[in-house]
């Protein structure tokens, strides 16, 4: 399964701060359907993600009935991204 969407990068200031992009509702239904076959626990879905020319392995996190994509510091640096930027994310889920 391959999904592509555009969303805003945001920052979570929790005990382990991290940057994320939220998957839009339209794509969350497809991910939810695939999750039973690919999750490794807590609803996490392993994916290959790509923003611009930078790809990485990560897992989607379930949050508030949707999924969020963690964006590593190395990806943000390589693509020149900041909080509030609109980014296009391509996800490959091996379902």
Descriptive notes:
- The chain contains two helices and six strands, in the order E-E-H-E-E-E-H-E.
- It is α+β, with helices and mostly antiparallel strands and 95 residues long.
- The chain has a single domain, classed as Elongation Factor Tu (Ef-tu), domain 3 (Beta Barrel).
- It is 22% helix and 48% strand.
- It has helices at residues 25-38, 73-79, and strands at 2-12, 18-22, 45-51, 54-63, 66-71, 86-92.
- A hairpin with a 2-residue loop joins strand 3 (45-51) and strand 4.
- It has a six-stranded antiparallel beta barrel.
- The N and C termini lie close together (6 Å).
What's the quick description here?
The chain has helices at 25-38, 73-79; strands spanning 2-12, 18-22, 45-51, 54-63, 66-71, 86-92.
Q: Which of globular, elongated, flat, extended, rod-shaped describes the shape?
A: globular
CATH architecture: Beta Barrel
> The CATH topology, please?
Elongation Factor Tu (Ef-tu), domain 3
Residue windows where pLDDT falls under 50 for at least 5 positions? none
Name the helicity range.
Answer: 10-25%
Summarize the helix and strand pattern as letters: EEHEEEHE
Number of strands: 6
Domain count: the total is 1
């Amino acid at each position: 399964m391959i999904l592509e969407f555009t969303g805003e990068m945001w920052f979570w200031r929790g005990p382990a701060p991290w940057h994320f992009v939220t998957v839009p509702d339209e794509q969350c239904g497809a991910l939810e359907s695939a999750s039973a076959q690919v999750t490794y626990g807590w609803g996490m879905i392993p994916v290959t993600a790509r923003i611009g020319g930078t790809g990485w392995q990560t897992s989607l996190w379930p949050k508030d009935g949707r999924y969020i994509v963690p964006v590593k510091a190395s990806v943000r640096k390589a693509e020149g991204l900041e909080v509030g930027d609109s980014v296009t994310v391509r996800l490959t889920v091996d379902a």
